[in-house]
Amino acid sequence: MAVSTVYTIQPLNSSCSISTQTKSHLGFNQKHQILFYTKRNITTISRSSNNVSVITTCSAEKPVVIGLAADSGCGKSTFMRRLTSVFGGAAEPPKGGNPDSNTLISDTTTVICLDDYHSLDRNGRKEKGVTALDPRANDFDLMYEQVKAIKDGIPIEKPIYNHVTGLLDPPELIKPPKIFVIEGLHPMYDQRVRDLLDFSIYLDISNEVKFAWKIQRDMAERGHSLESIKASIEARKPDFDAYIDPQKQYADAVIEVLPTQLIPDDNEGKVLRVRLIQKEGVKFFNPVYLFDEGSTISWIPCGRKLTCSYPGIKFSYGPDTYYGQEVSVLEMDGQFDRLDELIYVESHLSNLSTKFYGEVTQQMLKHSDFPGSNNGTGLFQTIIGLKIRDLYEQIVATRAESLQTAKA
């Protein structure tokens, strides 16, 4: 009789058993089938290597994987706070873990930072003359293997890149959640990782706005000189243009942040024009539209129902092409004076995936202290958060339906 070693793991929202086979007394690899039973499903996945079969069994409620790409300092953290709020509960660092962990965990969502897959620490990058944006400073094989494991419902021991010390710290345990978000510089760089994503977003901050933001932050808060800020931006630009920026062509949604067109020659970056570029034909995702789907519309809502101080607010919507693909583009230029009046704008938008009338406005008011809450960055981040919730629910419903069909 053959002996089989079984490891049973209990992640947050799925469970797995792994069985390694040994030879029987006759010298044959005897097949063992280990099934994991839940109220909803039975799933068995088999793999083989070096003539030793491994049976991995997981529940079908596997994580939905979301990718968020952007340069550093472009609002990824704020976006993640809005997203996890839509699903309920604040995202917090792992309890009892490394105080310098980059991971955030809520009731339903786990967010990991892809900086944790740096293969070189800060000194190592300096010695080799590469930036963190350079693929040579990152371990894409490990990134792929671990994201795939989580998507298959299997816990991982993920590395930690310590942003304080610049060193690679001991790994931390990550269990599969309902929603698994990978955010950072390279979520769509490697095709293997890109193919694992159920939905992807790119935050595209124009050079003018990025420069204005960095000046505001680094000069006011950190005491950096204007010359050092310019030098820092210029040093990163070649690698950003080569490795980060091209990823936006693969994104299902792009939030593009530009200088306002309402104020001539504005360079302060305080009033913004924000475009939500939504790819057509994405499974489980229907683009948001203004008034009439597919039409080209320009709308200035200022008047009796919306308070607008200088320079006002302008919305536009219409079909377009982006890297040769059909998209719908919703644009907001300007900023809100009173967030409670956002309900008027919300009432003219369709396909928002809200649970009740006014949910977008409620979310914006709830986080009115977040950066961008008075302009299109906060509005579109909130909308995408609601769309991701809807996408998750559709994926889960489809999986459940497939299981019921398979059982019939």
Automatic annotation (TrEMBL):
Keyword tags: ATP-binding, Calvin cycle, Chloroplast, Disulfide bond, Kinase, Nucleotide-binding, Photosynthesis, Plastid, Transferase, Transit peptide
EC number: 2.7.1.19
Annotated pathway: Carbohydrate biosynthesis; Calvin cycle
The keyword Kinase is annotated on this UniProt entry: yes
Family per record: Belongs to the phosphoribulokinase family.
One Pfam family recorded for the sequence: PRK
Catalytic activity: D-ribulose 5-phosphate + ATP = D-ribulose 1,5-bisphosphate + ADP + H(+)
Gene3D superfamilies noted in UniProt: P-loop containing nucleotide triphosphate hydrolases
SUPFAM superfamilies: P-loop containing nucleoside triphosphate hydrolases
Record-given protein name: Phosphoribulokinase
Superkingdom field: Eukaryota
Record GO cellular component, one term: chloroplast
Organism: Oldenlandia corymbosa var. corymbosa
Localization per Swiss-Prot or TrEMBL: Plastid, Chloroplast
